[in-house]
TrEMBL record:
Name of this chain's protein: Acetyltransferase (GNAT) family protein
Domain named N-acetyltransferase: residues: 3-169
Gene Ontology terms for molecular function: acyltransferase activity, transferring groups other than amino-acyl groups
Entry-linked SUPFAM superfamilies: Acyl-CoA N-acyltransferases (Nat) (SSF55729)
InterPro entries according to UniProt: Acyl_CoA_acyltransferase, GNAT_dom
Gene3D superfamilies xref list: 3.40.630.30
Superkingdom of this protein's organism: Bacteria
Keywords per UniProt: Transferase
Amino acid sequence: MIFELLPITEIDMPKFKKDIQEAFQKGFEDVYGKTDGTILPEKDIDRSLNAKGSAAYKAVVDGEFMGGAVVVIDEATKYNHLDLLYVKYGTQTKGVGFELWKAIEKLYPDTKVWETCTPYFERRNIHFYVNKCDFHIVEFINEKNSVADTPDDFIGDGGEGMFVFKKQM
């Protein structure tokens, strides 16, 4: 496997958005069944892409666009956030996500802490972050412990909550 982590270009953006939406949608629907709601609306992707310090990358495996990520880097505090990470739906469990994450860590060697989150129902993601990438669960966001900036139309957690993960570097 020849893996490359490359910055997303404007030409890549439509495919990036389509593929990440499909991956999040199918992940949700694999658990809850078909839904008319959009699990990752374009406005949420754009919010990550336009955040101060954001950088977007694509994972290219053997010349094929196989996934991507959006990170938000705080150069002052070195407390960085993995906003979005995905592997193209139907190609999971081949090591692409892990290669993607290792490459991101190498790009930002001065990071002190990484933070990310994933829905409670996403057991595969929880396994990935905890057992493969050495993150630790530090918080459970739910109806009794909510986050102020969660959009009113957010349905991506299936109503079951989100785990927050941190990784001390």
